[in-house]
Amino acid sequence: MSATPESPPGARPAADGAAGDAVVPGANGGGTPKRDPLVVGLVKLARPKQWAKNVLVFAAPAAAGVLDNRQWAVDALIAFAAFCLAASGTYYINDARDVEADRLHPKKRRRPVASGSVSVPVAYAGGAVLLAAAMAVALAVNGNLALTVGGYIALTTAYSSVLKHVAVVDLVAVAAGFVLRAVAGAAATDIPISDWFFIVTSFGALFMISGKRAAEAKEMGEGATDFRSVLAAYSPTYTAYLRAVSSGAVLVAYCLWAFEKAEATVSSPTIPWYQLSILPFVMAVLRYALVLDQGRGSAPEEIVLRDRPLQLIGIAWVAVFTIGVYTA
């Protein structure tokens, strides 16, 4: 999505933000974000929409077909809650760190800390409380989950402090955060992770993040490096190369994983469900690649929540794969 031009003096501000992102006229004719009440700001700062990423926690136990076991399902739900708390805590701290850069971004300047709804000290304190709660919730399941959540917190903290300024390393660090989500589900339910599952998750995350960086650069234009300095290192051709390599790897790895799952079945089903799941999976990757090519990948969670064809393809994949799991 491209940035909306600022309104001329006296003009009515354009509604270029999401619902609830009110804008009031500024002295220079631009838009100044309206401050929300503190409670509303704290909720927005937690970014509930971003919790959709934590659904990856259910990937490993779902693929293993253990979510119909009540205890394991509860453990996976607790792992999901722990990651939601951890993610929100890191958002609090990251927004406090990046307050000046966010004020340069056409959309992120409406975030609670950047707009002044939540003060920087309150954001830091709230983030610390949420991170402590995440660790406590994870420990309620087992030590392995706590280690995974702790690793995620350490990684995101290092990313916010140093890693986001180092080209390529920043991509791998963000992708690793998604991999840790998938590992958390396995840790919570004591499910072993397939090598191919790990590769699919890793390269799938890298594919998404490379598209996010390309979309950010396109969206911000000449001001991209003011918002995120590392974007200067990523040319359109380089991010296109990353998308090609990572998408190719994820497609090959998924095909091999699907055939491995099929060979591991106790009784061969009449219909090869695992192999058939390759078709909707490939369609989903190609659809997402199209969205990225159109420059709409700066907010992956919005793509998942709003792109109807991608949602329908995803539902088809879940249905076919689930049948494969429970008929094996």
Structural write-up:
This protein is mostly helical and 328 residues long. The protein has two domains: 37-191, Tetracycline Repressor, domain 2, CATH 1.10.357; 194-328. It is 66% helix and 2% strand. It contains 15 helices and two strands. It has helices at residues 38-46, 59-64, 70-97, 99-102, 112-115, 120-139, 143-161, 169-189, 195-220, 224-227, 236-263, 273-276, 278-293, 300-306, 308-327, and strands at residues 23-25, 31-33. A two-stranded antiparallel ribbon has the order 1-2. The longest helix is centred in the first third of the chain and has 28 residues, at 70-97. The termini are far apart. 41% of the residues are buried. Mean pLDDT is 84; it is low at 1-30.
Arrangement of strands in the largest sheet: 1-2
**Helical segment count:** 15
- Structural class comes to mainly alpha
Cα radius of gyration in angstroms: 21 Å
Strand count, sense and barrel status of the largest sheet are: 2 strands, antiparallel
Q: Give the overall average pLDDT.
A: 84
The helix fraction, in percent, is: 55-70%
Element-level helix/strand string: EEHHHHHHHHHHHHHHH
Secondary structure tally: strands? 2
CATH class of the largest domain: Mainly Alpha
Total domain units: 2
Shape: globular
